[in-house]
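Support case: adenosine monophosphate complex. Customer-provided input:
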Amino acid sequence: MRIILFGPPGCGKGTQAIFISEALAIPHLSTGDMLRSAVSSGSEIGLKAKNIMESGGLVSDQIVFSIVEQRIAKDDCEKGFILDGFPRTVNQAEKLDSLLSANNKLDYVLRIKVDEEEIIKRLIDRAREDDKPDIIKNRFKTYNSETQPLIPFYEDRKILFNINGMQEIEKVSEDIKKIIGVF
Ligand code: AMP
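Agent response - structure generated as follows:
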């Protein structure tokens, strides 16, 4: 099963991705995690990504796509995967399409909806280096301008499902369970 977990920063998609990954025994692919590990390893990609990530902007489509492309080609992705934080632009979504063949299309885009105030509270609690208040605002601006257009993109294909992320973590998981009908 190929799933995209979609929503603004801090909506809880990482937490839900871990549950789904364990339940379905498919890998959780977080581009944020992959980029953070590139930054800490000091690789070329990491050096390019560092400042952009710290400002709350988006790393170039080319860099992110090359990471995803290499990861999806691995054997453990054969039966599926959960993408968390990718795609974040329509261009990334189109590139992802070109990577997936006719018989391994996306099954679900799960959109976790939350309100902005709640997200800011969660991000401050999480307090990562790129979670300072002005950077949080920038991440929202980026989400609204670059990532929101993916909603109609996937709605048109009838694979987008909305989930109320303002509930207990367990309840959000249950709603996901009902939609994907598995675990
Ligand atoms: P995340 O952990 O998903 O919130 O990602 C942390 C940061 O990594 C983001 O604020 C971006 O700077 C960068 N990033 C992660 N995924 C992507 C992506 N798909 N496209 C561009 N930048 C990304």
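The mean pLDDT is 92.

Case will auto-close in a few days if no follow-up is received.
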